[in-house]
Amino acid sequence: QVQLVESGGGLVQPGGSLRLSCEASGSIIWINGMGWYRQAPGKERELVAIITRAGSTNYADAAKGRFTISRDDAKKMVYLQMNSLQSGDTAVYYCKASILRAGDGTWERDYWGQGTQVTVSS
User: What average pLDDT is seen over the chain?
Assistant: First the structure.
């Protein structure tokens, strides 16, 4: 079984920073693309940032210049450094990874974490 577990969420004042972490565990052969998504109350889940296995990154417009995604394949982790947080960033943040699991041949599957709450408020 493969599991993704996020951490690092919490309450922060506007202008503050948080660093989210997501650790993958299980019978993992390799991890391809990884990403962060978020879902605010009453809204659909949206992309925040993605990073390929080669390290290429892509950000939603709302995240550009403020958020940085990175990964550590040796630790099977992906991170999201969030700076200059605004109230509009309040959401549940989810990590997602495309993972080749032992026993699945060459078939990668997408796995999601359970989410971590980020609340930006004074």
Answer: 96
Share of the chain above pLDDT 90, in %: 94
For residue 104, what pLDDT is reported? 81
Distance CA 40, CA 26 (A): 29
Cβ(38)–Cβ(91) below 8 Å? yes
Opening angle at CA 48, ends 79 and 116, nearest 5: 60
Cα separation, 69 vs 90, in Å, equals 18
Cα–Cα distance, 119 to 93 (Å, whole number): 10
